[in-house]
């Protein structure tokens, strides 16, 4: 089913998307820019194993070429055999939320460490101010595991979550803090004694 709301949101008609793999319609990426869709993407792998498919944030380009962030929930409709199924994607626009989180992460990161103010003077982080305050309690917990050198698989096992969820938490931490790599997050965690 492809309704008018979906067409207005992303610009593609039902004829352009129905029955086609996601990877043929748009190049789906995550917050770090990695491609997500393909023959063995995590939703397809979960569906093949008859496991629930986790919702996720994705970035697509609309038919007009505009980048858009969507939150996608997936329902797997079984077919005549275990390897046969139809995936129904239900999505909504979350572009404004993602852009706000990225901006807030960058601002908070700037306020939490020394830097040059546009007028050329230096600023130091205020006593007790921590850029880690922008993180949810769960993200702070994940950051502690990252700082201890745990892998996504180890974090998932310790917190009783999926590896995909652990990776999603890691990406949200990096985005909110305006960082590009886990090593930067580890350094920040140690700076603020969050380990």
Q: Structural class, from secondary structure content?
A: alpha+beta
Q: What is the CA-based Rg, rounded?
A: 20 Å
What is the helix tally? Answer: 9
Major β-sheet annotation: 3 strands, antiparallel
How much helicity do the residues have?
40-55%
| Distance separating the two termini | 47 Å
CATH fold field value of the largest domain:
Arc Repressor Mutant, subunit A
| Name of the CATH superfamily of the largest domain | Winged helix-like DNA-binding domain superfamily/Winged helix DNA-binding domain
* Low confidence ranges: 114-126
Q: Indicate the proportion of strand residues.
A: 15-25%
Spatial strand sequence of the major β-sheet: 1-2-3
What does this structure look like?
- With 195 residues, the protein is of the alpha+beta class.
- It folds into 2 domains: 90 residues, no CATH class; 94 residues, Winged helix-like DNA-binding domain superfamily/Winged helix DNA-binding domain (Arc Repressor Mutant, subunit A).
- Helix content is 43%, strand content 16%.
- The protein contains 9 helices and 5 strands; from the N terminus they run ααααβββαββαααα.
- It has a 3-stranded antiparallel sheet with strand order 1-2-3. Strands 4-5 form a two-stranded antiparallel sheet.
- About 7% of the residues have low confidence.
């Amino acid at each position: 089913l492809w309704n008018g709301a979906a067409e207005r949101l992303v610009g593609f008609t039902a004829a352009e998307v129905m029955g086609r793999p996601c990877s043929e319609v748009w190049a789906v990426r995550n917050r770090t820019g990695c491609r997500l869709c393909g023959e063995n993407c995590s939703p397809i792998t979960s569906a093949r194993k008859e496991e629930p498919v986790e919702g996720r944030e994705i970035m697509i380009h609309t038919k007009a070429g505009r980048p858009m962030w969507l939150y996608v929930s997936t329902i797997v409709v079984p077919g005549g055999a275990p390897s046969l199924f139809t995936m129904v994607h239900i999505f909504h626009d979350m572009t404004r939320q993602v852009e706000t989180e990225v901006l807030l992460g960058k601002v908070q990161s700037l306020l939490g460490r020394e830097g040059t103010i546009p007028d050329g003077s230096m600023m130091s982080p205020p006593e007790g101010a921590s850029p880690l305050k922008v993180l949810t309690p769960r993200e702070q917990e994940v950051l502690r595991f990252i700082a201890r050198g745990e892998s996504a698989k180890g974090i998932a096992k310790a917190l009783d979550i999926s590896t995909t969820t652990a990776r999603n938490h890691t990406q949200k931490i990096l985005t909110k803090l305006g960082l590009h790599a886990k090593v930067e997050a580890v350094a920040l965690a140690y700076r603020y004694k969050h380990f």
